[in-house]
Design a protein that fits this description.
The protein is of the alpha/beta class. The chain has helices at residues 31-38, 45-58, 106-113, 116-123, 145-153, 156-161, 185-197, 215-219, 233-237, 253-273, and strands at residues 5-9, 22-26, 66-69, 78-83, 90-96, 131-137, 162-168, 176-178, 202-204, 225-229. It has an 8-stranded mixed β-sheet with strand order 3-4-6-5-7-10-8-9, with helices on both faces. It binds zinc ion. Residues 96, 108-109, 140, 169-170, 213 line the site of zinc ion.
């Protein structure tokens, strides 16, 4: 079941790259579907990779557009679903599906990976200018192996055609956060702006102490990137990541669904606003 949300954006100040007024619509996937997909975290990374591929197929990504990219140095591939657009400009949306052996890895990072098929589903409802490439990365926990491989094999032409890389890692512990110090300022500004229009919370929290994440591989190639997470001082102090506490019950489902809705709208919003300087 879907509800159609139309977001009206008006009275936008001039000069920030956003048109004076425009509207877009997006059709969010229902909360029950989002939660059912989150529930498919079980098993080892091989099973999670297969589950992610299956979820993409269910969401309508057919064999022509869905692929597994073998990754040097990893036993498991990246899972890639392409949504073609009308221009040669690209937006990459990524999240790692692997997890450490402690805990179930629901927060870190099935919370991000299992949203990819739903985000694909929401983005494909209308024709888009950008081509969207949704990627489930392998072996982030072993040093961003999958995202490093992907970013390094991109040609210079592909790099310059990529206007944004949106990375999700560790969602649902609290409301939406941005890793501000490692995110492109324009992309962060657009997310903050949209969140305000949608009356959804977003704040910038820097998560330096928990290490790195996949977006770094793309910013290293000068691709504007943003990482969305949910770590606050409190959730960090609770030491959920990489521990037995990382299980389904650690997720606040209200926060999680809000983050999905915000990111879903953001991806559609970026189709109209993303522009490399
Ligand atoms: Zn992670």
């Amino acid at each position: 079941m879907c509800s159609l949300a139309t977001i009206l954006l008006a009275l936008v100040p001039r000069g920030d790259g956003i048109p004076d007024s425009f509207r877009f619509r997006y059709t969010p996937v229902s909360r029950s579907v989002i939660e059912a997909r989150l529930g498919k975290y079980k098993g080892n990374d091989q099973q999670r990779e297969a589950a992610l591929k299956q979820l993409f197929a269910e969401a309508g990504c057919d064999d022509q557009h869905l692929s597994e990219q073998p990754v040097k140095g990893s036993k498991l591939p990246n899972v890639i679903c392409v949504l073609p657009g009308s221009s040669d400009k690209v937006i990459i949306v990524g999240a790692h599906f692997d997890h450490v052996s402690d805990g179930d890895g629901v927060v870190d990072n099935w919370s991000g990976a299992s949203l990819l098929p739903s985000l694909y589903q929401t983005t494909k409802t209308d024709p888009r200018k950008h081509t969207y490439i949704f990627i489930g990365f392998t072996d982030e926990e072993k040093g961003e192996v999958g995202s490093r491989f992907y970013a390094q094999q991109m040609t210079n032409e592909q790099v310059s055609a990529t206007e944004a890389m949106v990375n999700m890692d560790t969602l649902g512990l609290a409301s939406t956060e941005v890793w501000a110090s490692h995110s492109d300022k324009q992309l962060t500004g657009l997310l903050a702006y949209l969140a305000k229009q949608m009356n959804l919370p977003v704040t910038g929290v820097n998560a330096e102490r928990i290490g790195s994440t996949d977006s770094v591989q793309f910013s290293d190639r000068k691709i504007p990137s943003i990482t969305i997470h949910s770590l606050t001082q409190d959730t960090y102090n609770a030491r959920i990541l990489h521990s037995r506490k990382d299980k389904l019950s650690a997720i606040n489902l209200d926060n999680y669904y809000e983050t999905y809705k915000l990111v879903a709208a953001y991806l559609v919003f970026l189709d109209q606003t993303a522009k490399r300087e």
